[in-house]
Amino acid sequence: MIDRPASPETQGARLSVTPATGRVLVLATVFICAACGLVYELELVALASYLIGDSVTQASVVLSVMVFAMGIGSLLAKRLRCRAAVGFGLVEAALALVGGCSALVLYASFAWLGGARYALVGFSLAIGVLIGAEIPLLMTLIQRVSRQDAGGAVADLFAADYVGALVGGLAFPFLLLPMLGQLTGALLTGTVNAVAGGALVLWLFRRDLTVRSRWWLITANVAVLAVLATATAQVGDFEDAARRAVYGADVRVAVQTGVQEVVLTGPVRGPLDLFLDGRLRVNGLDEHRYHQALVRPAMRGPHARVLILGGGDGLAAREVLRYADVVSLTLVELDPGVEKLARTDPALAALNAHAYQDPRLHVVTADAFTWLRSPDPLRGTYDVVISDLPDPGITPSTKLYSEEFYGLAGRVLAPDGRIAVHAGAVGARPHTFWTVVATLRSAGLHPLPYCATGRLSGFSAGPDRAASGARGAPGDWGFVLASRTQPSLGPERAAAWSPVVTKPLRLPASTLVHPRYGG
Where is each PABS domain found (predicted)? Predict the structure, then answer.
């Protein structure tokens, strides 16, 4: 129709370069397109995990749907083999547009439509079909450039494809995500994809194209590049509007650290909300109930040396430092961006009572699991260990609620020490709560489950919002106090927190190789 219907087996391409140079250019394009394709794939997984939650499920959905779609794309590409050059050019233009805009549309769907699952599946299918169509067309092109047996051509193509995938897979977390962010990174990847695919066809195979097909490709690529450039120029305004749609109109701070997105909402002088990767972590109206219930029961008894795992917002540290006889407090926080915000933001610093200015506080920037595992003969033991970590139902946090993790925490616990753990809502997520109890017990500790009421804040963004839609906003916070002997809550503030009286669920412990927090 718009390209010569010559069979690749009977007619070679008319090139302005030597066959060897043409072959190198085709393989270089394979390399670039493979890198871009893997970036699209990782972008979908990362954004879906952030917006929808449960990274294992989202990765499985994206990968399985894309692999299935790639098979469909390979079959559909058979119809384009007699017009391989223009077919490949149009496929790359479409892939650049769909892949480059995928993150933008997913985020928009979540912000304004309240969900991104259907958009995720749609983009996985579309990108998979287009990626699957690449190899058959490139196989035809490389054989037209240089006469080569099919086995050798396949080996060369897949070698370039796999190396390109390696580069794309490494570039996404170490270059694109930290430097450009998810939206701009995807748009830039689409631009590179369009330029590489369009340049190969419009220059190397230009003599094989009819005038009509050449103008088709030029128009398509210019249109795609114009859309991507316009979206890139407007991405800042789009992010601001989407954040307001998700978090409300009073977004005051929004920063992307090397670990997560941190958002503060609310006035400088007034109640604030702290969101980490879209999940509500702190509500200024009721956080004192949560942190008092987490810290104070564990402080009954010796508490000269205290360890907080997580809690970079400084709010658990505030409660610990209220005790004048605390000699030292060590806080292990993964994200230095949260720590910096807790030190410097006027509202958050006021809320944590400027805990970071207390000379008794020593901050360690590290993953809690890795830090506990690293031997340090000078570390000693702690009278109290406070585990103020993200919800165990969030996949990256699962290892921090495992039997192995509590075993490591037990090694730094003094013989008469206590450990307090945030374990999720008792009423809304009983499976998760009782799994934490069982896991502490399996680590050789005696757990005492308790809860605090008076919760005002529910789930308002991110994966937790999906959970609230199914079960309603939680009405309590669940905790577990554990020690080597049977602990006691004591009479202090008994009205604020009390032992859980519901019938316990008999559940197995969660381990690194068999996490059990999916229920």
Answer: 226-484
